[in-house]
């Protein structure tokens, strides 16, 4: 009899647990380890949002919502997007509530991709997209941004679209970016939109870090090409609600009508209790991210200055809570080897850049979603490692 392990979808064998999680688990068992690894806000969910969740439990919001989400949370999401970014979406026809931005990404990609399709991604980039692309039998095509300050230029985008041809089904954008913290200003977003509107491609714009844009107001590409854009956002980063698992898809009705089919069969619907808390976050908590953002800004400046003085080449993050740093010459250039050595010798864990694609080799990602005392200790340990290793 053929072993059952040989009867899985063959695409499953082409994917693996992300290197981020693999490395984090590898070092977590080391006593005294200081971890700056995962993209997890160290803040707690705002008290008024937690109270809304408690009230939802008391009032027995423990049943299924409609598959698109509760009416009031979609209305609140429409209000939030209009107030913060000037975007207009019909609450009942153009908004889906998802189980975090991760499920939103999966539902969007699986609804559009077929075997042989291609998806373009700027690199280095968060590793959560390619596995879903692979499962659909499609191919991820990476556009290297390392020579342009991690910013995708319209010239590179246009050239890649022309080279890859009709098989390109979608382009994924993620800004502010994980892992680099780089984001795009209005002119840069508009320039990309001018290229994309010439091609029959979906634009999946993952803007889950939009509220953590430090130096300028976040500009969504949906402002310029709404008819092509599947806008993804959520409350994990803006309201420190990672465990509540609330994300959103905003898209034209014609696209939403197809994506909701995949969403339904993946999860049925998001948690009703979490959705009731989300209403509070999106309305009364419209500006909840502001306090967190200012604290992240202070941390960014500290870590950026410290690592720059140690010889790391860093593109100063303009958003999110990550710093992507090039390992100085004279040290291990294999990012996994460097991070393992640092963890074992000085009990400091940061993520190898290769976890974000081959374009990230030679870099490390530092998450500064940690209190300042931990960051100061982390930089002390890093300085000691650099002094004693070269």
UniProtKB/TrEMBL annotation:
Domain of life assignment: Bacteria
Cofactors that this protein relies on: pyridoxal 5'-phosphate
InterPro entries associated with the record: Aminotransferase_I/II_large (IPR004839), AspAT/PAT-like (IPR050596), NHTrfase_class1_PyrdxlP-BS (IPR004838), PyrdxlP-dep_Trfase (IPR015424), PyrdxlP-dep_Trfase_major (IPR015421), PyrdxlP-dep_Trfase_small (IPR015422)
Keyword DNA damage recorded: no
GO terms, molecular function: transaminase activity
Keyword Protein biosynthesis: no
Start and end residues of each Aminotransferase class I/classII large domain: 33-382
Transmembrane segments: none
Enzyme Commission code(s) on record: 2.6.1.-
Keywords linked to the UniProt accession: Aminotransferase, Pyridoxal phosphate, Transferase
UniProt similarity note: Belongs to the class-I pyridoxal-phosphate-dependent aminotransferase family.
Protein name as annotated: Aminotransferase
Source organism per UniProt: Enterococcus diestrammenae
């Amino acid at each position: 009899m053929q072993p059952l392990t040989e009867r899985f979808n063959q695409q499953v064998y082409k994917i693996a647990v992300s290197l981020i999680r693999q490395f984090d688990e590898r070092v977590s068992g080391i006593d005294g380890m200081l971890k700056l690894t995962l993209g997890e806000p160290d803040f707690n969910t705002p008290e008024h949002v937690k109270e809304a969740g408690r009230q939802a439990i008391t009032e027995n919001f423990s049943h299924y919502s409609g598959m698109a989400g509760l009416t009031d949370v979609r209305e609140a999401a429409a209000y939030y997007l209009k107030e913060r970014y000037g975007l207009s979406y019909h609450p009942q026809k153009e908004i889906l509530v998802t189980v975090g931005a991760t499920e939103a990404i999966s539902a969007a990609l699986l609804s559009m991709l077929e075997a042989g399709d291609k998806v373009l991604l700027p690199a280095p980039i968060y590793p959560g997209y390619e596995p879903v692309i692979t499962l659909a039998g499609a191919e991820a095509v990476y556009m290297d941004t390392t020579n342009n300050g991690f910013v995708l230029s319209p010239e590179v985008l246009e050239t890649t679209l022309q080279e890859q041809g009709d098989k390109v089904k979608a382009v994924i954008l993620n800004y502010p970016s994980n892992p680099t913290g780089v984001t795009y200003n209005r002119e840069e977003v508009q320039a990309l939109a001018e290229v994309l509107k010439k091609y029959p491609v979906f634009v999946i714009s993952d803007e889950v870090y939009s509220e953590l844009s430090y130096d300028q107001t976040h500009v969504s590409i949906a402002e310029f090409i709404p008819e092509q854009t599947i806008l993804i956002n959520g409350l994990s980063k803006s309201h420190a609600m990672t465990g509540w698992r609330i994300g959103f898809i905003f898209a034209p009705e014609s696209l939403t009508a197809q994506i909701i089919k995949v969403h339904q069969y993946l999860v049925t619907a998001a948690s009703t209790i979490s959705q009731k808390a989300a209403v509070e976050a999106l309305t009364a908590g419209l500006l909840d991210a502001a306090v967190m953002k200012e604290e992240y800004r202070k941390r960014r400046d500290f870590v950026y200055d410290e690592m720059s003085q140690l010889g790391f080449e860093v593109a100063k993050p303009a958003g999110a809570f990550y710093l992507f740093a090039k390992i100085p010459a004279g040290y291990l250039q294999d990012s996994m080897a460097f991070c393992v050595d640092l963890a074992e010798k000085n009990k400091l864990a940061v993520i190898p850049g290769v976890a974000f694609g081959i374009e990230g080799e030679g870099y490390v990602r530092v998450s500064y979603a940690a209190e300042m005392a931990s960051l100061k200790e982390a930089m002390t340990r890093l300085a000691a490692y650099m002094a004693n290793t070269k």
